[in-house]
Design a protein that fits this description.
elongated, 26 helices, mainly alpha
Length: about 750
């Protein structure tokens, strides 16, 4: 069987010269604990059904349920979370068992069911890590009953056995060396919000080291790579979308505040409007932290409110714009203007944090906020959110779609072979296909080789055991836990060969108590594993044999194209097409933001989702480093930066109405978009084997270039405030484009 956990930490940096390090010890403890839970729950289930109730079918299904969801599946999380996942899977498991039992009426029906169900169960992993982790075990719940004999009269025993096994496994996950609880994502958000409030409390001078250290630690704790998979807000539910939105906002807030203090300098005094804005940020972040810790649903008038902070934003934007256009001179003044920009961007992030927190606590009215922060999903119904997620990866360019197709074709082919050849234990053929198929043909060949070696050794030992013990069921009953526990420990710790060998012994010991068997069961098991391995190998050679190697380049090219599109859309929204009408009222901001939210944000989210999945699979696949790889995470950062600007800039008050200024910004945006499109073409060309010789990107934008085209704002101008807001929007747009060009430079440095 495929190991549930890879304990590579014993060879990694966590191991010291004198022995295993803390990470390796935790991994070993997890493996041993899981083996104890699976062994205990499966043996109790088997003994109760087989010897207590004398129900053979029920005993088999109860035992295999525990093994499927406890050992074959890779459900993440603490003991409490794993138990909840197992119990939540009961309705789906009942449906799969029923379908498998009914479709076993004919080979063609079972094969067709295997094709459809195999794809759906594997593809369901798009909805979150818990479902993805349970998917291999759920596949087994259809595989087991879909073989002859066609026995719908045993459906009651099958379903009862499944429920018993699932309940016992859930109890074991909670009571037997349970995996420790981890801080909830909401708690991590609250800690980060408190850390941001602590940074915002400092209005000048040197920031104390502990405050900066706390902020950096809190931001690092929210990185997806640091959060346990079961705690990530990755499902398409409204609560998880709000959590993810809040996490992006608070990380941006921390980054802007840290950058603010990094460039502040002791000689630059904070103006009163800046101090007021920082105080508003502190109050908003601290209120969000309190609400996140308290939980529950908001009542009218309760919870953090963004209105006070938004009132402070307008004068801050105006003063910052006047500073930039009237007083800019020399590097010191440029630092001062950039610092002011960091403050306003931090305030925008704090507003998003407050709105996302309110949405998380039940306030769906946040989409009516006029600041334009892309909460268009706030009033979406659950079916719509789930449909969006499920259709995101419904494309041949998605590695999740590819893997689902590969597994479905392999399992259907294995079921057809087992049915047409009337194999005695065809179930093992499908089990081998399920557990040995990998995402690349190279990895599949390696897995098959290890599995055959392990199964051969296990078959020899099982044959000797069956020949020696013969039909003495009491001996097998005593040996079952003694065989199970080492097998479920050795597999994850020692590798696939040990897992397959150990499971062969477990199967022989188990089936010897179900029906009369001889030593010939061992070679049958070996032949079935060989057949399933060959089918998995053929599918790996036919269906996307290179794994994510190509898709990662294509999907990253898709992100670059999405960034280019986002740049064009955003600048088109912030530059007024017909003069000053938009600058005075800002009424078009909501409409522009709505358009960006419904089309642009969805497009860039889809591109980022495909790229993140491709990169995750690519990094998990063994490969030979034949060429220097681009900095793929930097591409994802650029996508996130582009999304942030498309969410925020169109909703800002005012529009850029001066013709020359708007033309300058559009040219700068066009250059940035062209550079990202050139990078997309290069990535596609490299993937196709035809290197692209396009020139490197242009240097970063220079904010001083604004002075050449930006007109002064007379102090007695009747529309001075509107023009100041327009200038502020211009500066924000330039700083946003500057960040995107800096991202592009980092990407090219690694190519």
């Amino acid at each position: 069987m495929r190991p549930r956990q890879e304990v590579s930490a014993r060879r990694g940096p966590g191991r010291a010269a004198g022995g295993p390090g803390p990470a390796a010890l935790r991994a070993h403890r997890s493996v041993v604990g899981n083996a104890l839970r699976v062994t205990g729950a499966s043996c109790v289930a088997f003994y109760v059904c087989r010897y207590g109730l004398d129900l053979v079918v029920m005993s088999v299904y109860a035992t295999f349920t525990v093994v499927a969801l406890g050992a074959l599946a890779r459900i993440p999380g603490s003991g409490r979370q794993r138990a909840a996942t197992v119990l939540t899977a009961i309705p789906a498991g009942l449906a799969l068992l029923t379908l498998g039992t009914l479709l076993a009426v004919a080979t063609w029906a079972a094969v067709l069911g295997m094709l459809v169900i195999g794809f759906l169960v594997a593809y369901a992993g798009t909805t979150g890590p818990r479902i993805a982790g349970a998917a291999p075990g759920m596949q087994l719940l259809y595989i087991l009953p879909c073989f002859p004999p066609y026995a719908p009269d045993t459906l009651g025993q099958r379903l009862s056995g499944f429920v018993l096994g699932a309940v016992l496994l859930a109890l074991a996950e909670r009571l037997v060396l349970p995996e420790p609880d981890t801080p909830s994502f909401r708690r991590l958000l609250a800690e980060a919000a408190d850390a941001a409030a602590g940074l915002a409390d400092h209005h000048g001078g040197v920031v104390p080291g502990p405050a900066l250290d706390r902020a950096r630690t809190a931001a690092d704790a929210l990185r997806p790579a640091r959060v346990p998979p079961a705690d990530l807000p990755s499902s398409p539910t409204l609560a998880h979308k709000a959590l993810a939105h809040a996490a992006e906002a608070v990380r941006t807030l921390l980054a802007r505040l840290e950058a603010l203090h990094a460039v502040a300098g002791g000689r630059h005094a904070y103006r009163p409007e800046t101090v007021a804005l920082l105080q508003g940020i502190s109050e908003a972040a601290r209120a969000a932290a309190v609400a996140l810790r308290r939980g529950g649903r908001l009542r009218p008038g309760e919870g953090p409110s963004p209105e006070a902070l938004q009132r402070e934003l307008a004068p801050a934007r105006a003063h910052r714009a006047l500073d930039s256009l009237e007083l800019l001179s020399g590097d010191d003044r440029l630092v001062f203007v950039r610092r002011r920009s960091q403050v306003v961007q931090a305030a925008d992030a704090a507003v998003v944090l407050v709105l996302a927190t309110r949405l998380l606590l039940g306030d769906r009215g946040v989409d009516r906020n006029r600041a334009g922060h892309a909460f268009g999903y706030a009033r979406a119904h659950a079916p719509e959110l789930w449909w969006r997620r499920l259709t995101t990866h419904l494309t041949p360019r998605s590695v999740i779609f590819q893997n689902a197709c590969r597994f479905a074709l392999g399992l259907a082919a294995a079921r057809a072979v087992a049915g047409l050849l009337d194999l005695q234990h065809g179930f093992w053929v499908l089990l081998a296909t399920l557990t040995l198929t990998r995402t690349t043909s190279l990895e599949t060949r390696s897995a098959v080789r290890q599995a055959l070696i392990g199964t051969l050794v296990g078959a020899l030992l099982a044959g000797g055991l069956l020949a020696a013990v013969h039909d003495r069921a009491a001996v097998y009953a005593v040996l079952l836990p003694a065989v199970m526990l080492p097998a479920f420990i050795a597999g994850p710790l020692r590798g696939l060969a040990w897992a397959q060998g150990g499971f062969t012994l477990v199967v022989a010991t188990l089936f010897a108590q179900v029906s009369p068997v001889t030593w010939q069961l061992a070679p049958v098991r070996l032949m079935d594993v060989l057949a399933g391995s060959l089918i998995g190998l053929v599918c790996g050679l036919v269906a996307w044999p290179r794994g994510a190697g190509r898709e990662v380049s294509r999907s990253m090219a898709g992100v670059c194209s999405a960034v280019a599109d986002a740049v064009g859309r955003t600048v088109a929204h912030v530059v007024a097409p017909t003069g000053a009408a938009d600058a005075r009222g800002g009424r078009s901001a909501a409409g522009a933001t709505g358009a960006a939210d419904t089309r642009g944000i969805v497009a860039i989210n889809r591109a980022l989702a495909l790229a993140q999945e491709s990169l995750a699979q690519y990094q998990s696949e063994p490969r030979e480093e034949t060429a220097r790889q681009p900095d793929w995470p930097a591409v994802l950062v650029a996508g996130a930066d582009a999304r942030r600007g498309e969410r925020l800039l169109p909703g800002r008050p005012g529009r850029i109405t001066h013709h020359e200024v708007g033309a300058w910004l559009q040219r700068a945006a066009g250059d940035t978009a062209a550079d990202y499109r050139a990078l997309a073409h290069r990535l596609c060309a490299d993937d196709a084997g035809t290197p692209d010789r396009r020139p490197p990107p242009r240097p970063s934008l220079d904010i001083r270039a604004l002075l050449a085209v930006a007109p002064p704002i007379p102090r007695d101008s009747p529309d001075r405030e509107a023009r100041a807001l327009s200038a502020a929007l211009l500066l924000d747009s330039v700083i946003w484009l500057d960040a995107l060009t800096a991202d592009l430079t980092r990407i090219h440095q690694e190519m």
